[in-house]
């Protein structure tokens, strides 16, 4: 039993009100308003919350599932505490899930866009869930550095039109919270809100979700945050990657207008998972030394969604045709 002294026997901790709002039983609990969510998460980011409160708050939200107002409030609180200056970026691409069954083909989509002049910033976190291959380690294998500050991002955009920034640089507090995955046994709302941060105010953003119910909340939160061009999909493994074996519903924003569009299933049968994720094979596909039908389809289709989201095509058909051309000419 802990012998830590309770300093709040005689007066209430200021964060207690937020735990009470989301945890006051089946009939008494409710979602936070935008303002409450903003204030609560601001306290978390400033380390003004006790560990026991933080654990209770995050898990209560996980059980309840975040409302649009809560998600938008959390993200805006995070954005207001960032220390980055806006940059000339075309696309903000979040990558927080890691891959387990298939290679990260979405990376080849992003890198192909970069080779064709589109400026892409990808941000993510690694290692928070066991037995997954994360973007950071794959990029390092391919020879791309992991940025440690805005100057690094600017240099990589200048050199490669692509930069990867870990969450630990964007927000050490959020990074620590994501790393609690193996302590809590569950993902927390941080896995959701981190995808929406858009640290450099790119005019187009893309996020993937694990569970279909989050598609709409991400779309609506992005809209509430004022994002003009955005796309949310249930991506393969939780990454923003089109799965050719399934229909893909895109919940998006195009020029400030909400839309939904479903892309059809492209294969007759489910493609087998890789026996192992050998990055040497992945690199050979990228360099054109080996073919991979599933992977190349996933990469080009994902690139097509990105092109449409950036406003580079008027229709998805046009976007997919352009993506195939860019992939074939990536050398």
From TrEMBL:
Every Glycosyl transferase family domain range: 108-326
Domain Glycosyl transferase family 3 N-terminal: 27-80
Gene Ontology biological-process annotations: L-tryptophan biosynthetic process
InterPro entries from the UniProt entry: Anthranilate_Pribosyl_Tfrase, Glycosyl_Trfase_fam3, Glycosyl_Trfase_fam3_N_dom, Glycosyl_Trfase_fam3_N_dom_sf, Nuc_phospho_transferase
Domain of life: Bacteria
GO cellular component, one term: cytosol
Keyword Membrane carried by entry: no
Keyword ATP-binding: no
Gene3D superfamilies: Nucleoside phosphorylase/phosphoribosyltransferase catalytic domain, Transferase, Pyrimidine Nucleoside Phosphorylase, Chain C
Alphabetic keyword roster: Amino-acid biosynthesis, Aromatic amino acid biosynthesis, Glycosyltransferase, Transferase, Tryptophan biosynthesis
SUPFAM superfamilies recorded: Nucleoside phosphorylase/phosphoribosyltransferase catalytic domain, Nucleoside phosphorylase/phosphoribosyltransferase N-terminal domain
A molecular-function term among this protein's GO annotations: anthranilate phosphoribosyltransferase activity
This protein's name: Glycosyl transferase family protein
Organism this protein belongs to: Acinetobacter chinensis
């Amino acid at each position: 039993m802990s012998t830590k002294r309770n300093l709040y026997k005689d007066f209430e901790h200021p964060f207690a009100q937020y735990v009470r709002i989301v945890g006051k039983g089946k009939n008494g609990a409710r979602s936070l308003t935008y303002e409450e969510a903003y204030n609560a998460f601001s306290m978390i980011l400033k380390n003004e919350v006790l560990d026991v409160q933080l654990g209770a708050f995050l898990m209560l939200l996980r059980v309840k599932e975040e409302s649009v107002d809560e998600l938008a409030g959390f993200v805006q609180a995070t954005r207001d505490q960032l220390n980055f200056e806006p940059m000339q970026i075309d696309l903000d691409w979040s990558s927080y899930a890691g891959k387990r069954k298939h290679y990260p083909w979405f990376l080849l989509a992003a890198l192909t866009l970069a080779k064709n002049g589109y400026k892409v910033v990808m941000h993510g976190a690694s290692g928070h869930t066991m037995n997954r291959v994360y973007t950071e380690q794959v990029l390092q294998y391919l020879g791309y550095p992991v940025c440690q500050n805005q100057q690094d991002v600017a240099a990589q955009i200048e050199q490669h039109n692509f930069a990867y920034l870990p969450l630990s640089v964007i927000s050490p507090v959020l990074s620590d919270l994501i790393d609690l995955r193996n302590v809590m046994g569950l993902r927390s709302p941080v896995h959701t809100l981190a995808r929406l941060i858009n640290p450099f105010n790119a005019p187009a953003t893309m996020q993937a979700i694990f569970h279909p119910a989050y598609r709409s909340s991400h779309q609506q939160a992005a809209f509430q945050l004022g994002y003009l061009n955005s796309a949310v999909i249930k991506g393969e493994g939780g990454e923003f990657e089109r799965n050719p074996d399934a229909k893909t519903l895109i919940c998006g924003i195009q020029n400030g207008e909400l839309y939904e569009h479903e892309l059809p299933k492209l294969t007759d049968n489910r493609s087998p998972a890789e026996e192992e994720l050998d990055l040497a094979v992945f690199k050979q596909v990228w360099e054109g030394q080996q073919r991979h039908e599933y992977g190349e389809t996933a990469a080009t289709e994902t690139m097509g969604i990105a092109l449409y989201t950036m406003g580079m095509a008027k229709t998805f058909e046009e976007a997919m045709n352009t993506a195939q051309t860019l992939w074939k000419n990536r050398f």
